[in-house]
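Example 9 (inverse folding). The structure is encoded as follows.
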């Protein structure tokens, strides 16, 4: 990870009539052309070209004047500029060499009065373990579709000071993240996101506000950090292992689906019964608290077995 930028191009002057320095469609295309940037599917790049949309995202995220916001994948800076208008500080994490090199110059040219409140981390978001400056209080991002869930979960796990999150993701991913138990799309992302936060859909975004326009719709997802963590003696890793096993074979009953995780079907049934969960239930019916009870029950059983073995 590096917080120093490669040589940046000459600052991009604000286009006539651009609202308060925000980027419009012509600005985005001119800047991309000057940098030789062509959005790539490999990195899930679709740049937001509508100033009203980025302002809507900032409003929906309820960004406050005292917030320290971290943004993932700022691209050419559309959302970054809108965040700088509203927050105390913004730290952007960008993996692309050219985009990372250009962004500070764009900020300086279009919003010079706020440039000192901006930091850039030139890195893969999945490898970020620390951020410069004050601890982040909010995460707001247009996440690349191909890595949205792992990036989101990594940031929530690594930075517990993030209280509020608003991400724009593929509509299908938004549905999965916000799904409730019993829903057809409830699965691993739903449970793991709910481990950290209360999750809900926060709106839809049309395709025409992007360049290039994606062939899928987008959705906003709001995540507010739980005021109290899930009550369990099991670790996050232990709970997530149960979740992964339960949904790896989601058509099977939990007794069968968790057999490999527990060591055998009878051991899985014992853990389920101890947790107060029917062995005939399926993963899509369980809350994150129930998954935690299963992990805790199995952990207790393992410790008892180990203690008996040690005393033999």
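The amino acid assigned to each position is listed next.
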């Amino acid at each position: 990870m590096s917080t120093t930028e490669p040589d940046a191009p000459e600052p991009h002057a604000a286009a006539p009539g651009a609202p308060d320095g925000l980027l419009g469609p012509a600005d985005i295309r001119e800047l991309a052309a000057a940098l030789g940037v062509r959005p790539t599917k490999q990195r899930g790049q679709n740049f937001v070209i509508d100033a009203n949309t980025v302002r809507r995202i900032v409003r929906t995220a309820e960004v406050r004047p005292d917030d320290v916001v971290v943004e993932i994948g700022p691209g050419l800076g559309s959302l970054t500029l809108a965040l700088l208008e509203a927050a105390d500080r913004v730290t952007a994490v960008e993996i692309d060499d050219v985009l990372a090199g250009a962004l500070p110059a764009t900020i300086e040219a279009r919003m010079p009065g706020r440039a000192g409140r901006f930091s850039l981390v030139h890195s893969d978001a999945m490898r970020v373990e620390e951020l410069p400056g004050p601890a982040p209080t909010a995460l707001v991002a247009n996440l690349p579709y191909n890595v949205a869930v792992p990036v989101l979960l990594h940031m929530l796990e690594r930075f517990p000071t993030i209280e509020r999150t608003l991400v724009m993701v593929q509509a299908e991913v938004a549905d999965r993240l916000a799904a409730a138990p019993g829903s057809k799309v409830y699965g691993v992302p739903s449970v793991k996101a709910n481990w950290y936060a209360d999750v809900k859909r926060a709106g839809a975004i049309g395709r025409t506000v992007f360049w290039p326009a994606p062939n899928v719709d987008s959705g906003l997802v709001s995540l507010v950090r739980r005021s109290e963590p899930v009550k369990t003696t099991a670790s996050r890793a232990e709970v997530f292992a149960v979740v992964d096993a339960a949904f790896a074979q989601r058509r099977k009953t939990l007794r069968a689906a968790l057999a490999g995780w527990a060591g055998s079907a009878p051991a899985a049934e014992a853990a389920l019964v101890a947790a107060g969960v029917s062995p005939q239930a399926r993963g899509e019916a369980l809350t994150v608290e129930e998954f935690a009870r299963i992990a805790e029950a199995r952990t207790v059983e393992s410790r008892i077995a180990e203690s008996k073995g040690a005393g033999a």
